[in-house]
Amino acid sequence: MDIKTASALHRLRLVSVLEAVSFLVLLACSVLKRTTEFDAVPVMGPVHGVLVVLFVALLAVAWYRTRWGWKRPALLFVLSLLPAGGFFADRSLRGETQAAVAAAHAGAGDAAGVKDAARA
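User: That's the sequence. What structure does it adopt?
Assistant: Structure tokens below.
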């Protein structure tokens, strides 16, 4: 894998965690709205909505970059619909992201070695 694939996976992991946190905060705000006078739903709703749209866009980019079949992106999308699903998505992507970063660094090292050999 190249560095762009590793970067796409890393961004997807980051946004999946942010989306999960925003979902949980939105749920808490919803409960507080119904039990107290505190109403942060008009603020957290759009924040969560933007993060969901960003997650879906980054999922499409990662799907394109990694050449996954349809099952993996479908699972990640379904996980994003669950309140803590983004944390599970992050966990499932962690190993693949680390492997992509290692492969990208190894590829960069090989490219530098080829350039050094060509100069000699």
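The radius of gyration is 19 Å.
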